[in-house]
Amino acid sequence: MKDWYDLSIYIDTPLDVAQGRRILRDYKNGTASEIHDDITFYLEEGRRAYEEMETTIKGDADYIVDGTLPVNRVVVLILSELRGR
Q1: Which residues make Cβ contacts (< 8 Å) with residue 10, sequence separation at least 6?
Q2: Which position has the higher pLDDT, 77 or 6?
Q3: What angle do CA 14, 33, 40 make, to 5 degrees?
Q4: Structure pTM?
Q5: What's the CA gap between 51 and 44, in Å, rounded?
Q6: What backbone phi and psi angles, to 5 degrees, belong to 15?
Q7: 3-state class of 28 per DSSP?
């Protein structure tokens, strides 16, 4: 796929941070049962997909950004990288 794009950016966010942010975002008004079902799915399926990205995609990224930073800082870093190319 590298022939199809100029730059790949990987936002490196630890599993716990990504999951916590997702629950806060998606289940602001969710029930405990909905959250339980989501975490069960994450443990059975989603975690594997994340780990696969860590081993197959991250290493080939042109630029890696610390995903624990605030969103506005991530945006500034990515824009700075783009402008520098």
Answers
A1: 57, 58, 61, 63, 64, 65
A2: 77
A3: 40
A4: 0.78
A5: 12
A6: -55, -45
A7: coil
